[in-house]
Amino acid sequence: MNRRTVIGGLFAAASVPALAACGGGITSLDGQGSGGGGGGSSKNGVTIGTANFTENQVLGYLYAAALEAAGVKTKVRPNLGTREILIPALEGGDIDLLPEYQGALLHYLDPKSKATEEGEMQNALAVALPKGLQILPYGLAEDSDAFVVTRETARKYKLTSLADLANHNGKLVIGAAPEVKKRQVGAVGLKDVYGVEFKEFKSLDSSGPLVKGALKKGDVDVANLFTTDTDIVDNHWVVLTDPKNLVPGQHVVPLVADRKADSTVRKALARLGNVLTTEQLTELNRQVDKDKKDPQDVADAYARQHGISKG
Question: Do 104 and 250 touch, CB atoms closer than 8 A?
């Protein structure tokens, strides 16, 4: 996921009108999305795929809970891999639905896109999506990419923003998931936008134990994490600011195949998107990563507590 800038604030239900003003937010449960028409049917069930990190798995099970409550049979295939695997699987019919992130998906489909505002990205995504796929309205919750250093590294190199990294070209090591090396919201964009050149790129995982362990040990100087990762606050790590807006906005958005995008699916996912906030999503991540709870159990408990599921 390569999601964005530091979260500027937590959205609550009262934020819905503001989102709607952006042009792509959820204003009602009509479930109308962008990029493709209706005509699909969820009668025979929906298969949900997820990426290979905690939050996306939790979101996949939340999607399942919302759909099951609406009478749609679901199957979740978690931890399938990166976007490079998931999008072809969605196009090919191996999965029907996946939780996505606006900016990351847009940069995957259109690396040259300059859209950063939520409504602009929603419109750009509608144009860039492959035939047969569509995005539904984006939700309240947001998770962004963050480039993080320890407090010790920040003091040593006088780092507060991504721009400061260029003052130490050839000296610092970055750790991230392998695909970040070739992504605009990653090593490519850091060089193009900020002129940053690292001593080494270490291929690790997506905001997981490998990259966070390497940051703690000093094996990497900079780590690509997600802003909903509770380890950032727990370890007092420093999130480098992004003055040139390399990292776009990253609201959670369902990506679905036309063949399954009927009104039942649209309304169920719109309802979930209207309820789930960034703060809540961060807490769900904490329960899985820190408390070692099962992602499905965490998602099901949230769905029951917030009236998303029937149980």
Answer: yes
